[in-house]
Design brief:
Layout lengths: L4 H24 L3 E3 L5 E3 H17 L4 E4 L9 H13 L10 H4 L7 E9 L1 H5 L5 E8 L2 E9 L8 E6 L3 E5 L6 E3 L11 E4 L6 H9 L4 E4 L4 H8 L4 E5 L7 H13 L3 E4 L6 E3 L2 E3 L4 E5 L4 H11 L1
Parallel strand pairs: 3-4, 10-11, 10-12
Antiparallel strand pairs: 1-2, 4-5, 5-6, 6-7, 7-8, 8-9, 12-16, 13-16, 14-15
Helix pairs in contact: 1-2, 7-8
The chain binds magnesium ion.
Length: 305
């Protein structure tokens, strides 16, 4: 029996609505900005987060929210009007104060939500793949997640979900959710490796080629974790740096892969830990695999690095 049914249902609804917001801005056109760390953010990122946070606040007012965007100064009056127009046309709840939802973080609580309003913003800007990810934790332990990936298989919207102890699932029609499992591939030379479309990561590709990997799947966003979870990829290696290791980026993918029977660790073999907005690790790389390959990949990394 699912323990967090309401949380899961809300997460599914919110990631679905958030993709509608993102698609609305895609058609309408959107402004892009650069954040302090030089990563891009668009008006759609803000609109998506504003909607998600406003709903979390309404349904779970005592919970804490850990969300990516915070710079309300980027939203001028024109932008605010555009966000209101979007919500209006999509029949979403009207908000009196749009901007206050950007920085709203709820109360300090052992019940925490993580929100990535648009993951893979570069992919989104280019009309390629992106994702919306929401996670729910108790005392920093992942319990529930939902990841929406528009333009997934045959251009359909895929919604992936997982709950601790209940497995992972996917839906392509907004109704039926079917269980997914990682691949059973044990053969190193048959590995299908997921890696980023828009970020250079020479060590990952060098390492992969060195150990004989020949099949590469390039896709933006946390959808790479979904590929491993559903068994259409066997491995995903993600380089990290201390500045860009956020809970909203990795908590949903961590749960999706593990609940589908796979494994996720850093390259030392330690499980990821989450502390508020920070994803903690002992070495700067994440390995998500079908589980069977995991130990071998870590050993090969140690002896080839
Ligand atoms: Mg984001």
């Amino acid at each position: 029996m699912p323990r967090f049914k309401k949380e899961l249902e809300l997460a599914i609804e919110l990631v679905r609505k958030a993709t509608q917001i993102a698609e609305w801005f895609s058609k309408k056109g959107f402004e892009s900005f650069l954040k302090l760390d030089q990563s891009p953010v668009t008006l759609a990122d803000f609109a998506s987060q504003i909607y998600i946070v406003s709903q979390l606040k309404e349904y779970f007012p005592d919970d804490e929210i850990i969300a990516e965007e915070e710079n309300i100064d980027l939203i001028n009056i024109k932008a605010e009007d555009l966000i209101k127009q979007c919500f209006n046309e999509l029949n979403l709840k009207k908000l009196k104060n749009v901007k206050e939802n950007i920085r709203f973080r709820g109360k300090s609580s052992e019940r925490q939500w993580t929100v990535d309003p648009i993951d893979g913003t570069i992919g989104y800007q280019k009309g390629l793949s992106y994702a919306v990810g929401i996670g729910f934790m108790i005392k920093s332990n992942p319990k529930v997640c939902a990841i929406a990936v528009p333009n997934y298989n045959e251009k359909l919207l895929a919604i992936f979900t997982a709950e601790e102890g209940q497995g992972s699932q996917v839906s392509y029609n907004n109704k039926n959710f079917n269980p997914i499992r990682v691949s059973q591939n044990e053969n190193l030379h048959m590995i299908r490796l997921c890696h980023s479309l828009h970020y250079d990561q020479p060590w990952v590709l060098n390492f992969a080629k060195k150990i004989g990997i020949r099949k590469f799947i390039q896709i933006d966003s946390m959808a790479k974790f979904c590929k491993v979870a559903e068994g259409t990829a066997d491995l995903y290696i993600k380089p990290l740096d201390a500045v860009h290791s956020f809970t909203w980026d990795f908590m949903p993918g961590d749960l999706i892969v593990k609940e589908a029977g796979g494994n996720v660790t850093d390259i030392n073999g330690e499980h990821l830990k989450f502390k508020k907005e920070k994803c903690l690790w002992t070495a700067p790389g994440i390995v998500a695999s079908n589980g069977i390959l995991h130990k071998k990949i870590l050993e090969l990394y140690q002896s080839n690095h």
